[in-house]
Design brief:
It contains 14 helices and 18 strands. The chain is of the alpha/beta class. The strands form 3 sheets. It has a 9-stranded mixed beta sheet with strand order 2-1-3-4-9-8-7-5-6, with helices on both faces. It has a 5-stranded parallel beta sheet with strand order 12-11-10-13-14, sandwiched between helices. The chain starts with a strand and ends in a 13-residue tail after the last strand.
């Protein structure tokens, strides 16, 4: 695999992962490092280019994040985005000051097409701005390459030292020709050769696994989600017959999901173990209504069930995990705890493994899905919506019972089926069984049954969302089917709340 690397140095910007993905989409491998990464850490990766991200702070504050100034003098091309541009200006003797008018949203800019960065992108372009500080005075050796009505220096460059800065965000879709600008930085300025692809990544990872494992065995906890499923498919191809997958069916999956997962792996060169643990999980959840307590109990029971089954496998030497790159990037991040993570808890530390194998550790989710398609996994696995580790337990408000699980499975299946039949777009959609019962009329009699809430959202990153305005014809069809086909439900409502203030899940 071509080892060209571009480093994304993060100064707190919300788009760091998007920048890294855009670089990869252009055929160059990218890695995210904290803005405070040492000179030694940067040079050890031998990057062909460096990108400074945006960030929420003012460069003029005493605690503003600053990189090692020597990084600018490595002779490596550098592109600063938003705060990153202001950082370059600050470190090279220019002046950054509060803007007379802050700019937020899509703005028209005039770009100088003579700049290598804006080759093929010159003239009037729509760009996304989000700033309250801006470059007020150019450093020596720099020249202006873009402007807006309110921002006289919207981009600058020192082409001799290969330092470039843009006040706007080329990585977002709302910036016209933003991807072309990133491509120009990579190929015109950094002189990239390209070559990063999923085909190369797959071959490289399979070779690494074979060298590490040899003729020994690997154990994988298979959740049925995209990451663990692609990990299983990759390992079964790399080391056929040496992988054991343990799938814990906790009884909290969607309709037919366990059957689909078992079918997806029945013909692969691995040992697949499906553990029916429904009764032990239902017993553990009896009379529990608090959502945090549900998560904790499910996490603990998952670990116990996995440990019980792992002991029967004859001590495989390696443990495989479906860790992906965003997990690695965010592992040290400080964030307010809104709720415990949806995925069930970590595996026991005392299991006797020689090492951990994480073949997807360098990939983003969209890359993982592409790899899954290359490995022949079915669409229902590869394109699976995000599904919380605690499963339907946090889509049932209140106590979990087998009756409630059956009701929700049927209602949720109808909703997902009709959305697909109507062909409407939503990034995530599901049903929630509320703890509300209301009076209704079923036939000639009175009913007093449950209310189901439907949720469908549009989102790019699952960090924020807006509700999807589904057609009333679709909602009416779903409501009619649920109330007629699922005894025990007599009312259907639609959630039209965004995130924030709500979360995507209800619990």
């Amino acid at each position: 695999m071509n080892q060209e690397t571009v480093i994304i140095m993060d100064f707190g910007g919300q788009y760091k992962e998007l920048i890294a993905r855009r670089v990869r989409e252009c055929g160059v491998y990218s890695m995210i490092l904290p803005g405070k990464a040492s000179l030694e850490e940067v040079t050890a990766l031998n990057p062909i280019g460096i990108i400074f991200t945006g960030g929420p702070k003012s460069i003029n504050l005493p605690d503003a994040p600053i990189c090692d100034p020597e990084i600018l003098h490595l002779g490596i091309p550098i592109l600063g985005i938003c705060y990153g541009m202001q950082l370059i200006c600050h470190l090279t003797g220019g002046q950054v000051a509060p803007a007379s008018y802050s700019e937020y949203g899509t703005i028209q800019a005039d770009l100088d097409g003579r700049s290598e960065l804006f080759a093929g992108c010159g003239g009037a372009q729509e760009i996304l701005m989000s700033h309250y500080d801006q470059v007020a005075q150019l450093p020596d050796g720099f020249q202006k390459t873009a402007s807006t009505a309110q921002c006289p220096i919207a981009a600058f460059e020192d082409p001799i030292r290969k330092w470039y800065g843009v006040q706007f965000h080329p990585e977002v879709e709302r910036t016209q020709k933003g991807t072309e600008m990133i491509h120009n930085f990579l190929y015109r300025i950094c002189r990239a050769q390209g070559g990063y692809s999923m085909e190369n990544y797959l071959e490289e990872q399979m070779q690494k696994v074979r060298e590490k494992v040899g003729n020994r065995r690997v154990l994988l906890g298979l959740s049925g989600g995209v990451d663990s499923s692609v990990t299983a498919a990759l390992l079964s191809k790399a080391i056929p017959g040496q992988l054991t997958c343990i799938y814990i069916d906790h009884g909290l999956m969607r309709k037919n999901e366990t059957k689909e997962i078992c079918a997806a792996f029945q013909d692969r060169a691995l040992h697949f173990i499906c553990v029916d643990a429904k009764e032990r999980f239902l017993k553990e959840l009896a009379h529990v209504t608090d959502p945090e307590e549900k998560r904790k109990r499910i996490g603990r029971e998952f670990v116990r069930a996995f440990e019980d089954e792992a002991k029967k496998c004859g001590n495989p030497e390696f443990l495989a995990q479906g860790t992906i790159y965003p997990d690695v990037v965010e592992s040290g991040a400080n964030a307010a705890v809104i709720k415990s993570h949806h995925n069930v808890g970590g595996l026991p530390e005392n299991l006797p493994f020689e090492d951990v194998i994480e073949p997807l550790r360098g990939l983003f989710k969209d890359e993982v899905r592409k790899l899954g398609r290359m490995l022949g996994l079915p669409a229902e696995i590869v394109d699976r919506q995000p599904f919380p580790g605690p499963g339907l337990a946090i889509r049932i408000i209140g106590e979990i019972t087998e009756e409630k699980l059956d009701l929700l499975r049927e209602a949720d299946a109808i909703f997902r089926e009709e959305i697909q039949r109507f062909g409407v777009h939503a990034d995530q959609y599901f049903a929630v069984l509320t703890n509300v019962r209301s009076v209704g009329v079923m036939g000639d009699g009175r009913s007093y049954d449950y209310t189901v809430a439907l949720r469908a959202v549009w989102t790019n990153d699952f960090m924020t969302c807006e509700y999807a305005p589904l057609p009333h014809e679709l909602l009416a069809k779903v409501s009619s089917r649920i109330t007629n086909e699922v005894p025990g439900i007599n009312r259907v409502v639609y959630d039209i709340t965004g995130k924030p203030p709500a979360t995507i899940e209800w619990e």
